[in-house]
Specification:
Elements lengths: L2 E4 L6 H10 L5 E4 L10 H9 L3 E3 L3 H6 L10 H5 L1
Parallel strand pairs: 1-2, 2-3
Length: about 80
């Protein structure tokens, strides 16, 4: 099985598509977190990731989006989204 390891997508759909398009053939994606945060397309990034067989860990931005992490320690840009 060939696994593609990705992380820190931060809702950047253009970059995620570029990585997936440029990656060699893979069977499974291991996502190490931070699918959302900063970028303009969190829902689309989640949907694209879900369209592939994957395992995804939650990063601090993912936990914050779920309301399970206090964002007071995030920088100003991260707190804005």
């Amino acid at each position: 099985m060939r696994c593609l390891v990705i992380s820190d997508i931060h809702a950047n759909l253009v970059a995620l598509r570029a990585v997936l398009d440029d990656a060699p053939d893979f069977d499974f994606i291991w996502c190490l977190g931070d699918v959302v945060g900063y970028g303009p397309d969190p829902n689309e990034c989640v949907e694209l990731l879900r369209s592939h067989p994957h395992l995804c860990l939650a990063g601090n931005h993912d936990w914050a989006a779920l309301g399970r992490l206090d964002i007071s320690t995030f920088n100003a840009d991260a707190r804005r989204w």
